[in-house]
Write a structure and sequence with these properties.
Bound molecules: ligand F0G
Distance between the termini: 37 Å
Strand content: 5-15%
Structural class: alpha/beta
Shape: globular
Number of strands: 10
Radius of gyration: 22 Å
Low-confidence stretches: none
Mean pLDDT: 96
Helix content: 40-55%
Length: about 375
């Protein structure tokens, strides 16, 4: 028996060696769609190729034979979708012989910018809103050796400052106003179509500065124009109720939400986002922090997917507008960031049982398990 098993294992090993196809990062994989040449020095951490996971419990809640998938971009090298844009932005900065980059960030951009900048041998400066960046993201920026300036002000103020600086000093801005960021991020839409074999009927996505919704739409349109899909999705963008400038079409002076990643009151890509809504016949909605946390817990405890609160806004939004979704629809919800980014939120918001201070005694533990 044991011998047979081992024989099987050894013979299989030979097969797997041949079928293993390495992934070389999204610039190499989608080279012909991106502004790079043979001479471009590519800075990559092999980002991209993140899974599209069927969400069984969400399907069950919505019914109507819908198929809801999560595009789990929290599985990128620094734990968020920002790596897609950053590999491009830093690669181009390197090509242009730039020595330092700068960004404003609610946390993920700074983590990603720092990682890729360092890999490319550059300095990275980040401006963050003091006290409003999740611990995991701050830890990353520190470990990747960013030079961090925390300001007494929100993300919008920080972005204003870095935009000014990059105009006058030799330092490249890597926020999503940098067009290479959008180029890199559009590959997520390519991956969705490559996986499904078609475009979904709906794309549900959280919005902050609205770079990502702009990038997805660009990616879908490019595949459509190249006849790699037959239709385009409706784009549904979601913002937290306390921070929803695009939903209510105004500037929010003091944005507030548990989803600190999207705590943005004056999105720099406002016009582009409104264009996406119009062109795709999509819509924007707000979701309350309570709705975000409900989806966050559901994804964790029912699907085994740990995302950060801002990411859960896409699923919270879908659940909110489920009545509008026709039967048999295919829907992709973008989960933009990994749950480990924000451990404080996880520890405060869960329905788990946690007993501490127990005696290390077999009988005690068996009893606690509910056995006699
Ligand atoms: N989800 C997460 C986890 C984010 O970090 C962000 C943006 C968004 C969604 C919104 O994406 O801005 O393209 O609409 N985070 C930026 C940052 C602002 O600094 O990390 P968007």
């Amino acid at each position: 028996m044991k011998n047979n098993f081992l024989k099987k294992v050894f013979s299989r090993k030979k097969e797997t060696k041949n079928i293993f196809k390495p992934w070389n990062g999204l610039i190499e994989e989608y080279r012909e769609w991106l502004p790079v040449s043979e001479r471009t020095p590519i800075i990559s951490l092999q980002e991209g190729q993140t899974p599209l996971i069927l969400l069984h419990s969400i399907n069950e809640i919505i019914g109507k034979n819908v198929k809801v998938y999560a595009k789990y971009d929290g599985l990128n090298p620094t734990g968020s979708f920002k790596d897609r844009g950053m590999t491009m932005a830093i690669t181009k900065a390197k090509e242009e012989k730039c020595e330092a980059v700068i960004c404003a960030s609610t946390g993920n951009t700074s983590a990603s910018a720092a990682a890729y900048a360092k890999r490319g041998g550059m300095r990275s400066f980040v401006l963050i809103p003091d006290g409003y960046v999740a611990q995991g993201k701050l830890a990353q920026a520190l470990v990747y050796g960013a030079e961090i300036l925390a300001i007494k002000g929100n993300f919008d103020k920080a972005l204003e400052i870095v935009q000014e600086i990059s105009k006058s000093y030799p330092i490249t801005l890597v926020n999503s106003v940098n067009p290479y960021r959008i180029q890199g991020q559009k590959t997520a839409a390519f991956e969705v179509i490559d996986f499904l074999g078609k475009a979904p009927d709906y794309l549900c996505i959280p919005m902050g500065n609205a770079g990502n919704i702009t990038a997805y739409w660009l990616g879908f349109k490019e595949y459509y124009q190249a006849k790699l899909c037959k239709k385009l999705p409706k784009m549904f963008g979601f913002q937290a109720s306390g921070s929803a400038p695009l939903v209510f079409n105004k500037i929010v002076e003091n944005p507030n939400t548990i989803a600190t990643a999207i705590r943005i009151g004056n999105p720099v890509n406002r016009k582009k986002a409104l264009q996406v809504k119009k062109e795709s016949k999509g819509d924007f909605f707000d979701v309350s922090d309570q709705e975000i946390l409900h989806a966050y817990k559901l994804l964790g405890a029912k699907e085994g997917i740990f995302c950060e609160p801002a990411s859960a806004a896409s699923v919270a939004g879908l659940l909110k507008v489920a009545n509008e979704i026709p039967k048999n629809s295919t829907i992709v919800c973008v989960l933009t960031g990994n749950g480990l980014k924000d451990p404080d939120c996880a520890i405060t918001n869960n329905d788990a049982k946690f007993e501490s201070g127990l005696d290390p005694e077999l009988r005690t533990i068996i009893k606690r398990l509910g056995f006699k």
